[in-house]
Amino acid sequence: MGARIITVTSGKGGVGKTTTTAHIATALAKRQQKVAVIDADIGLRNLDVVLGLENRIVYDLVDVVEGRCRIEQALVKDKRVEGLYLLPAAQTRDKTAVNPAQMVALCQYMRPEYDFILIDSPAGIEQGYRNAVTPADEVLLVTTPDISAVRDADRVIGLLAAASKTTPKLIVNRLQPKMVAAGNMLDVEDVVSSLAIPLIGVIPEDPNILIASNRGTPITLNGRTPVAQAYHNIAARILGQAVPFIDLSAGDGIFKRLFRVFG
Q: What is the pLDDT of residues 69-95, one digit of tens each?
């Protein structure tokens, strides 16, 4: 069958979806998986910066679709991690430059060569979202634990069901345990209960993620922090391993209930 095609999406901007895609891809590659990451956010293109590959781009996704180059010419190989490749988005075009049928054909052509194809979807539910989701075998839905983001995520779940996609798996990003303990942020159990989809990862807020993204060095390359471990755990779960959720308590045991439910 070849690669598992996984789209990473969200209901709105600002939830750290692109960073999440980059870190999961890197973590999978570190586990000896051959991974291609497709940036489907045509017109904005940020995945290359997060991965630190922006200076090596010659061709992009639209060049491939319009026949100006072969896929192999457009793919950028990460020299730091064996088996990690990026197909960048175009910056000077908009999302209508590619259609869902073209994305399906592209992914099917690439499928035999890879273990995983990760598609970074644009935020929202317009043309770019449809391009990214149509080829997917699986979907990872990223949200932050705030009411508006969870509501947007619920809308995406409905759209995926209408498109007959399998139930997405949930990543709760930018969790701040102290805010949860103070009652100023939704806890993970509330988010899972509201969305009623399986949880695959919880990522704590960490300023080192921003620093790593600005430097183009994914934190999963060499970091040993809880946030790096959380991304590596998601990769392990994608590979079918039973990995407990890490302790993100704020010192008062607030997440012990979470571990009983999900650990």
A: 999 999 999 999 999 999 999 998 988
